[in-house]
Amino acid sequence: MKLNEYELDALTEVINVGVGRAASSLSEITDSTVKLAVPNIYVCGTPEFSEIATTLNLGFSTSVQQAFEGDLSGRALLAFSSGNAFELARLVGGIQTSDTDMDAELSGIVAEIGNIVLNAVLGSIANFLDCRLSYQLPQLCTKSEFSKIILQCSEDAQNSRSLALLADTAITVASHDLSGSLLVLFETDDIVVMLSALTARLTV
Amino acid sequence: MAANTQPMANLASRQLDLLPIGICVVDRDLNLLFWNQTLAQWTGISPETATGSNLLEHYPSLKSGRFLPRMKRVFEYGQPALFSPSASQPFLPISLGEGGDRVMLHTTTMMPLGDHRQYAQISLTDVTTQYEQIQALRSEKEQHRRSQRRTLAILDTAADPIITISGIGLIESYNPAAERLFGYSETEVLGKNVTVLMPSPYREDINAAQTIKRNGECLLDLINDILDLSKIEAGKLGREEVDCSVHQVVAEVASLMGVRAKAKNLPLSVRFDGSIPETICTDPTRLRQILINLVGNAIKFTEAGSVQIVVCLLNGPGEEPKLQFDVIDSGIGIPADKIGKLFLPFTQVDSSTTRKFDGTVTNEAEASLHNCRILLVEDGPDNQRLIGFLLNKAGATVTLADNGRIGFDLATAAMTENRPFDVILMDMQMPVMDGYDATGKLRETGYAGPIIALTAHAMSTDRERCLRAGCDDYLTKPLNRKKLISTVAQHASREEHCQASNAARLETQPPTVCR
After folding, report:
1. Structural domain count, chain B
2. Closest Cα in chain B, distance from residue A124 (Å)
3. Residue B173 domain flag
4. Which of A183, B190, B262, B344 is the most buried if burial means most Cβ atoms within 10 Å?
5. Cα separations in angstroms, B421 against B49, B52, B360, B417
6. Contact: A123, B87; criterion CB under 8 Å
7. pLDDT tens digits for B104-149?
8. B128 CB near a chain A CB, below 8 Å?
9. Residue B298 resides in a domain
10. Are residues B53 and B99 in the same domain?
């Protein structure tokens, strides 16, 4: 499935609003200003998507996923390189350690950050597309689960089973620059219907 | 007939009580509809008291926290919330421990329940033990890193050349002082065999040999200190308690350090203040080591004047008698504001001070190996030359064998001719036939003479393996000249033919090489 330019712009805007909300939620729990840059969004099937997905697959080691169903089905993931995940968790949790291994405590913080960011983005999508979603609990993904999801994205994109969007964003926490990637996967039939409805509404 | 679902509902409620997870159900206003037994145990609030009351009544802290807005979203948008104890603080302040001095660390999730998001289930998982283990592990790792950094800092600032060598003789670290001494840069020698530091062509050049001897001994002392250091760090430094003579230990230290003092024209004296017991129960090795260190430093940092060791007995009433050792020097001293740092681990008062004073060299009494016939079974040409040279200088006649097979043939031939070698020095790692096999075979043929193993492995298990193979003793490479000569001399003197044979042998006869 191919999104037309107008639909893609609309979806990008929806995700942007969600990322903005995530930043303010994160600022609340961290006691420091959190900035999330306007993300670059790529659709699965484009060379940019493949390039970023490959990099994520090779180097990213900490990711949180939250599945959703209802009017739209799919899942959303927030992924960080191990260094970024560690640094983010350390800053948010105020943890003093020079150890660079992700342990259960640091992973727990990343899971909470993931929960806040993914809730904000998915909430924004649900709001704009005027759909009702029910969510599963956020879960940390293992590296192999993450690889499987990325592979599935490409396969599904080829036979138009799902639409995967990838948003790359820079996160600034307490003047530390970090980066993370947001991956949202929708089942194709749902998103086509939803986007048509949205664009119809907006163009009326 | 309609099924009665009540028993199943009761059973489900009982099951929730049995879970090791705190579970409660709230409505949009946070009124409690369910409170399981686990939560009751943790909080002391019974299910009867909890049900029907409001969560905020029991935990008003939830109002002021960041929890409330996120809890509201659960009902408004149906989105689950996850609170980790480290990012959000524990959801409920549950006391732990006897005096309630600890707070339970728990991960909390809140999920919407019911078709219209009118209820939510809150689950609390206790992670206190897990997180405490993480803290312990982190601090253990931190301590390890600190000690590594300290060791590296010591290596960098040490005025003495320090080289650490792996079990197989490869250079693992090499400090700036070693760089100055040997003239090779760190990158040139790291990971290489320690023999790269030795002059490779064998020459009977006394200066070269003395350099090897001096540096070798100097390095070995330092390496041993570092090994002790790592033992202290690992908490494995053993201590023995035996009866020993204070006078003897002090006299040994004075005689050993007298050489260094004399080289700097410093009188080194010993004074026993009052009566001192004949024997005391202590670890003489450690006492000697401590005194050598203190006296060594006193000599090193004193340019003129004297160094004195004073021993006195502190015998206060009602107290256990103690011996006090004072090492008094007229050196540069320690600034008053730095004295507090003295007993912190590895604090140097001023690293620039140590740099000004170079490492010292000791000359120790030689053991003699006159009239000794030694078979050196060793495949490495550098070691053949170095060990051959050292033994030769001590007066021994050395026959070289390139591997265990040749060594075995030479030893059995000499035995048949009824003029066996006094000592066999057997390298354990060799091609063709290794030292273990050669020793085993010699013992099988009834060879009873002393065999001393040479190996690069410094583990105690290696020592046992050598002894099991039939060796009488064990020396580790890099070899300490003094230890080599004394060990060989000790075993040679047990062999009566050592005294009987070859009175006319030349002292500096070069080694015969058999290949």
Report:
1. 4
2. 10
3. yes
4. A183
5. 94, 98, 38, 11
6. no
7. 999 999 999 977 788 999 999 999 999 989 988 888 888 887 777 7
8. no
9. yes
10. yes
DSSP state of B125: E
Nearest C-alpha of chain B: how many angstroms from A1? 29
Choose one of B99, B126, B153: the last residue of a domain: B126
Question: What is the mean pLDDT of the segment spanning A24-49?
Answer: 78
Of all helices (H) and strands (E), which one includes residue B279? strand B279-282
Identify all chain B residues contacting A28, using CB atoms and an 8 Å cutoff.
66, 69
Q: Which residue has the higher pLDDT, B480 or A18?
A: A18
Do residues B226 and B271 both lie within one domain? no
Nearest to B423 by CA among B444, B399, B394, B392: B399
Domain identity same for B401 and B292: no
CATH code, domain carrying B268: 3.30.565.10
**Class of the CATH domain delimited by A5-199:** alpha beta
- Number of neighbours of residue B302 by Cβ within 10 angstroms: 19
CA distance B64 to chain A (A): 13
- Domain end residue (candidates: B277, B306, B333): B333
> Which of A31, A102, A105, A173 to mutate: most B Cβ within 10 Å?
A105
> Number of Cβ pairs closer than 8 Å across A and B?
78
Please tell me whether residues B170 and B121 are part of one structural domain.
Answer: no
Examine residue B439 and state whether it is found in any structural domain, yes or no: yes
pLDDT tens, position by position, B446-493: 888 999 999 876 556 777 888 888 999 988 877 777 788 889 988 888
Cα distances (Å, whole numbers) of residue A60 to A101, A117, A142, A155, A163: 14, 18, 10, 20, 21
Tell me, yes or no, whether B422 and B314 share the same domain. no
Residue A28 forms contact with B (CB below 8 Å): yes
Structural domain range at position B212: 144-233
Same structural domain, B211 and B304: no
- Under the banding of pLDDT at 50, 70 and 90, the label for residue B63 is confident
Answer whether residue B317 is part of any domain: yes
ipTM of the complex: 0.88
CA dist A128 and B78 (Å) reads 16
Q: For residue B296, what are the contacts with CB-CB under 8 A and spacing of at least 6?
A: B257, B260, B360
